[in-house]
Amino acid sequence: MTGTPLEKGTELPPLSVRLTREHLVRYAGAALDFNPIHWNERFAREVGLPDVIAHGMLTMALGGRLVTDWLGDPGRLIEYGVRFTRPVVVPDDGEGALVEFTGKVAELREDGLARVDITAKFDGRTVLGKAQAFVRPA
């Protein structure tokens, strides 16, 4: 984020991330979340999923990265929340799943905080609902 004044409607630089099965393994180790829906195709299909899916919290974290990269200081991210609306299916093909993040300043509050609305899409469909971050601009 530059030193220019922040305005409602300001768009954040987009972020595109390709998630692979390797990312899921690494995230599982860091988060200690070894649910088999994130690594076992047979199990994922048995519980009604199309294939292995990314951890929702990993997808959420990437949305947070969109904001903190823009801010330049993760300490200025005050609050962040999402609803998980659709899974990100990660095929075992070496290419993985492309998740695209965009954000826009939707509100400037009297208390000095700004609300950033985040959109996360996989395969053209939104995967995070009501994704909002409250930030303290520079």
UniProtKB/TrEMBL annotation:
Transmembrane segments: none annotated. Coiled coil: none annotated. SUPFAM superfamilies: Thioesterase/thiol ester dehydrase-isomerase. Residues 15-104 form the MaoC-like domain. It holds the Pfam family MaoC_dehydratas. Belongs to the enoyl-CoA hydratase/isomerase family. This is MaoC dehydratase-like protein. It comes from Amycolatopsis cihanbeyliensis. The lineage of its organism: Bacteria, Bacillati, Actinomycetota, Actinomycetes, Pseudonocardiales.
